[in-house]
Amino acid sequence: MQVFSDRTEASEALTDHIQSRLKLELAVKERVLFVASGGTSPMQFFDLLSDRDLAWERVMVSLSDERCVPANHPESNEKLVRDHMLRNKAFVAGFISPDDNALAALMPAACTLLGMGEDGHFASLFPDSEQLKQGLTSNSQTLRVATPSSEFERISMTLPTLLNSKDIVLLVFGEKKKQVLENSQGLPIERLLKAADIKIFWAP
Fold first, then answer.
1. Core-most of 15, 28, 42, 144, by most CB within 10 Å?
2. Strand partners, 155
3. Strand 94-95 to strand 111-114: parallel, antiparallel, or no bridges (unpaired)?
4. What is the mean pLDDT of residues 160-166?
């Protein structure tokens, strides 16, 4: 776990890291995929990355999960990404929905950014969801998820899909979430941490 003094420092370090990963892949591939997380934690990172120099016209952006709402809905992760990242220099990057069949041709992702809830969920793989086991094991690209934790049905990439990435970063803010990481036994996040070499960026 990389520990930062505050969220701005963490966001800046994450921006450097993701930019570097995308540049590495762009040097050897014509088109690369970046899988982003929704939520409020990556907003500052999105703003920073949007103004970095990259061959953005060759970058496709997708999401680890999405609420089943219109793309212009206030709760839409796509809207969040478009408002905060797909602007400035990144305006020319492409966007592809997580359940688009064309996504498979872009795999493996150059990098994947995930967040985590205080209940230990990542993407939309919630501990109280009936679809959790399927989401952790299915080779399907995505699945529909219903959870008492959300008023909206969701689409989530499955764990095997998320693991099909050359680099995975978990961005986590706050003491409560740090405690969850340190005591993750039996929670969805434990499966992710055990399945791959996850880089964790944490700040208070």
1. 42
2. 66, 144
3. unpaired
4. 98
What is the edge-to-edge ordering of all strands in the sheet holding 59-63?
Answer: 2-3, 199-203, 168-173, 111-114, 32-36, 59-63, 94-95
- Structural domain that includes position 118: 2-203
Domain count along the chain: 1
Local structure of 85: helix, strand or coil: coil
Determine the length of the chain. Answer: 204
Query: If you ran DSSP here, which 8-state letter would residue 28 be given?
Result: T
DSSP string, 64-84: SEEESS-TTSTT-HHHHHHHH
Q: Looking at residue 147, which CATH number applies to its domain?
A: 3.40.50.1360
Q: Is residue 141 over pLDDT 90?
A: yes
- Return the structure tokens found at 61: 């952006």
**DSSP per-residue codes, 141-187:** SEEEE--TT-SS-EEEE-HHHHHSBS-EEEEEESHHHHHHHHT-TTS
pLDDT above 90 (res 149): no
Confirm if 96 and 71 have CB atoms less than 8 A apart.
Answer: no
Contact in structure between 82 and 46 (CB atoms under 8 Å): no
Rounded to whole angstroms, the Cα distance separating 173 from 131 reads: 26
pLDDT per residue as tens digits for the range 73-97: 999 999 999 999 999 999 999 999 9
pTM confidence score: 0.96
Instruction: Give residue 150's pLDDT.
Output: 85
CB-side neighbour CA atoms (13 Å) of 204: 2
Alpha-carbon Rg for the chain in angstroms: 16
